[in-house]
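Re: the request from the purification team.
They wanted to know what the chain is likely to look like in 3D before they choose a buffer screen. I agreed to run a prediction and write the result into the notebook, where they can find it.
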Amino acid sequence: MKEKIIKKATDMFLKLGFKSVTMDDIACEMCISKKTIYKYFHNKEVLIVEATDFVHQNIHVTIDEIISRNYNAIEENFEIRKMLKSFFQTSDNSPVYQLKRHYPEIYEKMMDNEIEDCNSMFKQNIEKGITQGLYRSNLDIDNIVQFYYTLVFTIKENTQSESASLKKEILALEYHTRAIATPKGIEELEKQLLNINI
């Protein structure tokens, strides 16, 4: 039952917002008593922590699956963006923006986890791109990783609309890729841009 509550609450938080969804709403949607929810989660904040962990795990399992398909480094980044777009397509409001505004402590914890994971993922992508001749070999990888995740997270946390956030993230990805790509990488970037709707 605990897992079912987390899944339903996560779905509702992403669609309707962390602030507006109440424990009563979740209980009503699931046709269970509010007491049943409180048996597993003593308040809404605990449930939000579980929901953000659930989203984090699902996103990173899917990212790992994309990476395992052996796309080239640039294509891999665009495939991850497409996945994120489909993951949040039911949301009008940015979940990250809402979390930062209404539950800053939970947001800070989530961001610490995300930054650690993204550091590793972005670094691996750049190293892969260098090996494939798509990114320049003389890059300061650590600083470029920091520039890129700072740009992406700044967009996420300051953009209210999820659709606007995703559009800006595609533009940030293009900006990032152009800054580090070889001529071969620019060709691949142009190919990817033709296949994406922003």
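For the purification team: The chain has one domain: 52-194.
Please add any questions underneath this entry.
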